[in-house]
């Protein structure tokens, strides 16, 4: 698998992969990081919002 | 939900086309909240692959409502596709997305916060919730 990195496209076999996640009342988030010789060269994140605790709908405009 | 903001494909505000909505990301030190009335570039993220103003929100679905007459209900709307910032590098941590109406003087629509993120030569995806009365991205009580 080819990974887009700060050093150009690299095969994943050359990289160290780290993954993480968070799951709470507000969001469910996952992220993946790839390192090359200890340097972070790729990080992606995927956020799913569970609720909208803070939405400003500009009530006057929506009336 | 089709007054100032024309969501979806069947708007009512004297025009036959839906408005264009955009989604801009803001760094953690930004003050983007209920007092925000319009898009501003102040404290917006910047970096490789990111264009000031953010990305266009896919707006192919008209808002729905649980009431069809003058009774209380819920009006709701959700973008019809996830918000995807592809191949970007955003080194300064960000935690806020502002959805705004670029067809109406960049008027703010909604603000959503999440845990701080950075992106390095990668993709940031905000997955949209199901477009239902209880989980839609935007929900308004109607009377």
Quick structural summary:
Helices cover 6% and strands 59% of the residues of chain A. By secondary structure, chain A is mainly β.
Description:
The complex is a heterodimer of chains A (63) and B (143). Chain A has 63 residues and is mainly β. Chain A has one domain. Chain A has one helix at 59-62, and strands spanning 2-5, 8-11, 16-23, 27-36, 39-49. In chain A, the strands form 2 sheets. Chain A has a 3-stranded antiparallel sheet with strand order 3-4-5, with no helix packed on it. In chain A, strands 1-2 form a two-stranded antiparallel ribbon. Mean pLDDT of chain A is 84; it is low at 53-63. Chain B is mainly β and 143 residues long. Chain B has one domain (1-60, 81-128). Helix content of chain B is 0%, strand content 43%. Chain B has strands spanning 21-27, 55-57, 64-65, 73-77, 83-101, 107-127, 138-142. The two termini of chain B are 13 Å apart. Strand 5 (39-49) of chain A pairs parallel with strand 6 of chain B, so a sheet runs across the interface.
Name the structural class of chain A.
Answer: mainly beta
SSE topology string of chain B: EEEEEEE
Secondary structural class of chain B: mainly beta
What number of domains of chain B? 1
The end-to-end distance of chain B, rounded to whole angstroms, is: 13 Å
Rounded to the nearest angstrom, the distance between the terminal CA atoms of chain A is: 50 Å
As laid out across the biggest beta sheet of chain B, the strand order is: 2-1-5-6
**H/E element string of chain A?**
EEEEEH
Number of E strands of chain B = 7
Radius of gyration of chain B: 16 Å
């Amino acid at each position: 698998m080819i990974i887009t990195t700060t050093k150009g496209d690299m095969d994943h076999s050359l990289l160290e992969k780290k993954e993480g996640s968070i799951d709470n009342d507000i969001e469910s988030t996952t992220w993946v990081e790839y390192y090359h010789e200890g340097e972070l060269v790729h990080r992606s994140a995927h956020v799913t919002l569970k609720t909208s605790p803070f939405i400003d709908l500009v009530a006057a405009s929506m009336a | 939900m089709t007054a100032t903001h024309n969501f979806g494909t069947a708007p009512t505000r004297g025009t036959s086309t839906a408005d264009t909505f955009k989604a801009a990301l803001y760094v953690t030190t930004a003050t983007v909240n209920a007092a925000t009335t319009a898009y501003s570039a102040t404290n917006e993220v910047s970096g490789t692959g990111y264009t000031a103003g953010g990305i266009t929100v896919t707006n192919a679905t008209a808002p729905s409502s649980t009431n069809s007459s003058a009774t209380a209900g819920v009006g709701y709307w959700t973008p019809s596709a996830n918000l995807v910032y592809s191949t970007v590098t955003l080194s300064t941590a960000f935690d806020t997305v502002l959805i705004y109406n670029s067809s109406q003087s960049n008027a703010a629509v909604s603000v959503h916060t999440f845990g701080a993120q950075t992106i390095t030569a990668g993709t940031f995806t905000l997955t949209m919730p199901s477009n239902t009365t209880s989980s839609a991205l935007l929900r308004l009580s109607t009377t």
